[in-house]
Design brief:
By secondary structure, the chain is an alpha/beta fold. It is built from 13 helices and 25 strands. The protein has a five-stranded parallel β-sheet with strand order 5-2-1-9-20, with helices on one face. A four-stranded parallel β-sheet has the order 13-12-11-17. Its EC number is 1.8.2.-.
């Protein structure tokens, strides 16, 4: 069980609402790097990792030419998409654009799909037919789903039993299904094996859907079928579910027959490892995951489906001059989170600018905080600080920890407030999004 190792005031002071201060001051980009030594960097992917990398390359050295390739004109974040499902926030709250990158920082933003990478020629081919030459390439591809990893669950099935694990239209589909479900219905969520994007995400999701049910469909039930026996912030979630929702949420771990092995989306039915069948009124399947498509096309993934990187710089271990950040990487014990992608991107930007200037990259330090809301005004968190120790990414001894289990009501309310502050701060740090009120 995770235990707090520093108090909350110390943790919040260390990590900051956005994580930007630690990352910026800790990187110590040489002034010489800011003054000269420029090149062309292509960044693929406009999420937490890619947008941050593009922005901070220009901040560290405005002379660097940066092209950001992103298919969509807006990015919807997975963080806070559960708040949308729970009826607490609207979709517009988690939508972000690229105006600040384009207009304030001078990033050339191209809305197209990166279809291929030629590492030998230092070239990216786009869906428009255009080919972009680069000196350095940053990939922030996020995740793709392993459609062969769970029997019966593919892209067509996801239109009937949504995953909603990439925010946007899938989130809207799941919310519509929840709203259409009759009171007294059964919602089933299938939680995946490790590793996957946002480790606390499935557990926050059932919390906030339970909140919605409590308000609008109080006779309904939630069954959480899990491929694991342990999950992030487990004691805190279990305590919160009991306090707010009684027996509405039932969690079944892998050893108790919680591992789903097959899905019948037409019947909204799942089969577990021991042969039990469960039929839902609304079925939410979070499928197995792997690195995003362009990472595989670039040839930087390994047999695990994820991307090995050099710990100090996040440059690919397999192809020179290609850097990879975010959920696609093998960076444990750092979780696959938006906060980590943002922090990794700053380290990559620093490493590239330093190399252009002929300097060694400064020592890297990353931090992460994952807030989860169990009910309005009731938040919990887990935090960590990481650096390279003996050639590997490791958690700094004595850093981080989880919210104390015995915390009082006022503490939980502050954590809920910190969650909002964190989200709004990191959104501004990444895309320049500014919130009203």
């Amino acid at each position: 069980m995770e235990q707090p190792r520093i108090n909350r005031r110390q943790a919040l002071g260390l990590l900051g609402a956005a994580g930007a201060v630690t990352a910026m001051t800790g990187l110590g980009v040489p002034m010489a790097a800011r003054a000269g030594g420029a090149g062309h960097v292509v960044v693929v992917g406009g999420g937490f990792g890619g947008a941050t990398a593009a922005k901070f390359l220009k901040r560290f050295n405005p002379a660097v030419e940066v092209t950001l390739v992103e298919a969509s004109e807006h990015f919807y974040t997975c963080p806070f998409s559960n708040w949308y499902l729970g009826g607490i926030k609207e979709m517009a709250y988690i939508r972000h654009g690229y105006d600040e990158l384009r207009e304030h920082y001078g990033v050339h933003v191209v809305h197209a799909t990166a279809e291929d990478v030629d590492g030998d020629r230092h070239e990216v081919r786009l869906s428009t037919g255009e080919r972009l030459r680069y000196d350095k390439l940053v990939l922030s591809p996020g995740i793709d789903f392993d459609w062969d990893g769970l029997a019966g669950y593919d892209e067509a099935a996801a239109e009937k039993a949504p995953h909603a694990w990439k925010a946007g239209e899938q989130s809207r589909l799941l919310r519509r299904q929840l709203e259409a479900m009759e009171d007294g219905g059964l919602f089933i969520l299938r939680a995946p094996e490790n590793p996957f994007r946002c480790p606390p995400g499935p557990y926050e999701r059932v919390s906030l859907i339970a909140h919605y049910f409590k308000q609008h469909k109080p006779r309904s039930k939630i069954l959480l079928l899990d491929a694991k026996d342990n999950f992030s912030k487990q004691p805190l979630f279990l305590d919160g579910w009991a306090e707010f929702y009684g027996d509405m949420i039932e969690w079944v771990g892998a050893s108790q027959d919680g591992r789903v092995v097959a899905v019948d989306a037409d019947r909204r039915e799942v089969e577990t490892e021991f042969g039990t069948r469960h039929r839902a009124d609304v079925l939410n399947v979070v499928p197995p995951q792997k690195a995003g498509f362009i990472a595989r096309r670039a040839g930087v993934t390994d047999a695990s489906g994820w991307v090995p990187v050099k710990p100090q710089t996040f440059e690919s271990t397999q192809i020179e001059d290609i850097y990879v950040v975010g959920d696609a990487t093998i960076a444990a014990p750092m979780p696959k989170s938006g906060f980590c992608a943002n922090a990794q991107a700053k380290v990559v930007a620093s490493a590239i600018v330093s190399e252009f200037a002929g300097h060694a990259p400064p020592p890297a330090v990353w931090n992460n905080t994952c807030y989860s809301l169990i009910a309005p005004g009731y938040g919990i968190s887990v935090a960590g600080v990481y650096k390279v120790i003996d050639g590997h990414i490791a958690e700094v001894p004595g850093s981080g920890g989880v919210s104390p289990r015995e915390a009082d009501e006022a503490f939980r309310a502050r954590e809920a407030e910190y969650a909002v502050n964190w989200y709004e701060a990191i959104s501004e740090d990444t895309w320049g999004t500014r919130f009203r009120g």
